Amino acid sequence: MIPLSLYVHIPWCIRKCPYCDFNSHNAPQQLPEQVYIDALLSDLATELPHIWGRRLESIFIGGGTPSLFSAASIDTLISGIRELVNFRPTIEITLEANPGTFEQERFRGFRAAGINRLSVGIQSFNQTHLKALGRVHSQEEALQAAAIARHAGFDNFNLDLMFGLPQQTTEQALADLQQAIELNPSHLSWYQLTLEPNTLFHKHPPTLPDDDLLAEMQISGQNLLKRSCYAQYEVSAYAQEKQECRHNLNYWEFGDYIGIGAGAHGKITQADASVTRYQKYRQPAQYMQQAQAGAPRSSSTQLTAADLSFEFMLNALRLKHGFPTELYTARTGLDRTTLSNGLAVARQRELLKVSDQHISPTEHGWLYLNEAIQLFLEA
């Protein structure tokens, strides 16, 4: 059976960052925590007919800034989910948090509620760069976050860090990365700042490092991570031994996931092997109203064979070591021959290594991953 995960979206932040293109909104003075959690659980109840008999492998509570919610609210949420859907005994439950929200007792409460993994949005330890990124936390709060997480009982946590920041030098990027490594997180997400449409940075672009400098940052940073025993397993994901994020691996391996919350997306394989993608209403007020009325989906689409083929490769080729060929058929229901044209061109251009058992990017293909993925859109 295809693995099943749950994504929960909590859309409020203290302040919208200028680079952020997620569905996030400035938090009102009084968060409607109970009303929103009631809506989330009503939303999940509407999805149950599509997942009868299946158990959750992982839950990821993202945002926004979910750690703005109280520990009591998160406890109510987790308990409510457990009443509706069965959990695997080894379930991974992640909560996104920002350093400015870290309070010892609150995070002890999150741990007691069943959260067993944190993902902390650091982005930088440099005060100048934090200001340029519009972050509300300070350098000191960023440094304290890991200590508070450990004292609250979390030995499994991710730090989110960006490079290629406005006016950033290679030395500054590596100093950020070295500082993160010294905090000894089990997982690091390290990725380049990009200017996404519908963001303030896209409308008013800051001056970013040029391509040569970005390449220097990336190569030097990856060498530092490797020396520090963080293995790269995905484009921007690095983990200590056996500490990969299981929730994100399920995305990249084209597993199924329920999406609940304002603007959340989901992907579900039906009993007849068809695959449906859907989205929930984006605006929090409208979402809560629609969820309570039992109609939280704003759109739903059944994927075609061409959609399935491309989307599988779009995700699976992000994995550093590729994937077993049998996974393609297991997750899409399609025969491997549907990839033949794209694979033939990719081998000719030395972008992919292809055997009967395994498909993975070559070293050259890893550098030109978008080119390799595009071949399966054209196919």
Tell me about the largest β-sheet: 9 strands, mixed
- The appropriate CATH architecture of the largest domain is Alpha-Beta Barrel
Task: Name the poorly predicted regions.
Answer: none
What's the CATH superfamily of the largest domain, by name? Aldolase class I
Tell me the span between the first and last alpha carbons: 28 Å
Q: How many DSSP H or I helices?
A: 15
Q: How many beta strands in the DSSP annotation?
A: 17
Portion in beta strands: 15-25%
Q: Reading side by side through the largest sheet, how are the strands ordered?
A: 9-10-8-7-6-5-4-1-11
The 3D shape can be described as globular
What would you report as the Rg, rounded to the nearest angstrom?
A: 21 Å
- The CATH class label of the largest domain is Alpha Beta
How much helicity do the residues have? Answer: 40-55%
- CATH topology of the largest domain, what is it called? TIM Barrel
- Overall mean confidence score, pLDDT: 95
Compute the number of structural domains. Answer: 2
